[in-house]
Amino acid sequence: MSNRLRALALGLAGATALAGQAFAVDLEITCRCVIGGVNSGTAEWIENSVIPAFEAANPDINVTLNQFGGEDAQLTQQLALDFSTGAGPDVTAFDGFLIPSFVEGGLLKPLEEVAGAEVNEWSGWDALSEGSRALMEYEGKYYGIPLGTDVRMIYIRKDIFEEAGLDGENWQPTSWEEILDAARAIKEAKPDSFPIQLNAGVAMGEATTMQGYWLALLGTGESVVDEDGKYIIASQGILDTLNLYKTIYVDEELGDQRAQLLADGRNRSFANFRDGVTAILLEGDYFYRSVTPEGSEFAVENRDEVMGWAKIPAKEPGAGIRGQDFVTISGGTGFVLNPATDTPKEAWALLSFMNEPEMQNAFQAIQPRITARTDIEIPNSPFLTETSQTLLPLTTARPNDPDYNSVSAEIQRMTEAVVSGELSPEEAMAQYGQAVISIVGEENTVSLL
């Protein structure tokens, strides 16, 4: 934090009020975003909308954006290190599922504990739905302000479907077998292609768990935990999910096995879809918002003509979680305060300012998305409007549990062991079970077999 040495040198016990300051305050904000690169829209919004407007309203505060271009896991590791040593940005983008583990590790504090009671007086809380507030909440306390949520679906290349004699305009599978049949038809028509992408492996991190494993597991009627919150370590659903991976990547080579094992595998999966090598890709609406727009690295030429979407079916009709025919899962991101910031009042002023309607609408003008605020609409995006209205009623969420992040890493290892051919589904599940027991304790696990 750039203000730390200044504060020590002046012997300040805490931050001054926003008005009447004797010196300028420097704030740093970090996100996994790079103008012209990953999450470019977020970087453009902060750099070109938030910072100029905030500095104009607060002339004694200077704000700098740290554009982090690495992977999500790398930013998480950096923040964990920074927060553990009292360093790091004053405000940072943060994935809500990480909050429990950071809190239990002493790396995050509730907003009101960092910035004071004025946090609870912010008018914006009333505009956040209960579900969206929960994205940045843990044990009844708020650790950040959510920016938005998302949904997951199947993206398809309608032009590739047509080449294989399939009706891409009206394709809506009702079972896993129908997805596989489409992939087989495409593989027959284009032998060098890898028709389907279901994220797997360690390198993709949480993208494997959320955009891969969960989307299949929910289709078996199961979740990662049971109704009592115990982690399921052996079940038919896990085996069915792992066998689906085996079918795609090992038995029938319908997917790009190597991409699941490479450090840049997720980017390779995006390139495969862009180039028509892959025609069926399971991803979040992030893929539409941030990956494929015109001008992006993985932009799909004539996107609105050649790209379509479908709901993710359960293994069979009615076999999904809660007896559903179709499934999806939602996560959520937002921004949190560094618990060791030297300028908590100013940091909170920036965080809350970012989430006021004027700034949120400025973001929507750059990159329409499903926002956390109920008073902000999705402008000029029929795709996001249609998908959110269709899929949000079907969605579920990850466990709000401090052990989830560690268990998720074991899920990624389990899928990699199967996709690489190293272990059978049964062997990989057994290895996963032992790893989860070591993380949460046997009393917090359950076998359904």
UniProtKB/TrEMBL annotation:
SUPFAM superfamilies: Periplasmic binding protein-like II. Belongs to the bacterial solute-binding protein 1 family. It comes from Devosia albogilva. It holds the Pfam family SBP_bac_1. This is Extracellular solute-binding protein. It is found in: Periplasm. Residues 1-24 form the signal peptide. Its main location: periplasm. Keywords: Periplasm, Signal. Transmembrane segments: none annotated. InterPro entries: Bact_solute-bd_prot1 (IPR050490), SBP (IPR006059).
